[in-house]
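Much of our argument rests on the idea that a fold can be written as discrete symbols. The amino acid sequence and the backbone structure tokens for this protein are reproduced below:

___
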Amino acid sequence: MTRPRVLFVSRERIRLPLAGAQERKWAAVETVVEPRVLAAAPAGAPTRGGPFRLAAPGRPGFADGALYYLALPARIARELRSFRPDAALVQGVQEAAAFLIGRRLARDDAKLILDVQGDWHESTRLYGSPFRRLLNPVNDALPRLVVPRADAVRTVSTQTSGLVRELGVEPLAVFPSYVDADAFLARPPAPLPATPRAVFVGVLERYKAVDTLVEAWPRAASQLPGAILHLVGDGSLRDRVRALTEQLPAQTEWSPELDADEVSRAMDDAWLVCLPSRSEGLPRVALEGACRGRAIVGGNRAGIPDVVHEGENGLLVDPDDPDALAAALVRVLSDRAEAERLGAAARRTGEEWVVTPAEYGARIEQLVRDVLAG
């Protein structure tokens, strides 16, 4: 059977050459479709290789996002003319709007599959510079224009499916984002270490409630002598995280970047994974932590309750309440037996949700073939 040609479009930063989870993911995808990938590259990394056509960071840095989206329609039109895909899997309504423009420029008829992995309202409210909020009216109007024009929609959670249905569109497929089973599920859970630790993994932005965590940790740390919070990630709130490490140097660690295997080891070194987000489509980090048999302290918003069940495999808190977050951290980090009980249940949750690379590739193939057949 001939593999369909699929153009993948997203704002994701992909580092070439591929390694670890990314290598396993795209290898699985390439067995079932012929891909071409339009995305972004980290600073100093290659921008071309195999099916990847990546955009280097724009200059000046504060204009990187705007420059990316301004250039995206022309980049898409170029690939539609040269690659001639059967369909495009496009992550996000902003990218889908660029695809619709690019498709018109190229006078092409490739099918648009909109991939909704989060709440589109939050991209201008809880991410990056406060000046992004000036774009709220445009950002709120865009889904009403784009979603009904997609040939199909794929969602990842109860929340994202609800967003699409509010616009009168039924998702063609609902399945989780890729979670690397090899890095997070292949090994049995490690015993909890002697030192109670919490680990946060994610971009340092308001939608991840990093500001709440920075407020909560000193309150929790005062009740947990010797406990450590390890933050993994980078973003616009890095100065707050840096200040926290200076305020509590013996109880706070910060790693701006780790690969999937390093994240897995960081979770093994912790008693719990903290994900107090205000907005998540499907909480991939929570699933990864669950696979490693770690309790999850998560925000009681959006897609997190799909994975974290209060008192069963973790605790849910208001992401705007630092006192509640501090209390949840203290509850787990002060009670090894409780951390082990929640972690054991979390492992079962991870086993239920995670798919192998081959299974993920099969779902992508089925989605594309259903769209092309319909």
In short: The longest helix spans residues 64-83. The chain has two domains: 5-178+356-373, 182-353. DSSP finds 14 helices and 14 strands in the chain. Residues 5-178+356-373 form a domain with the Rossmann fold fold (CATH 3.40.50.2000).
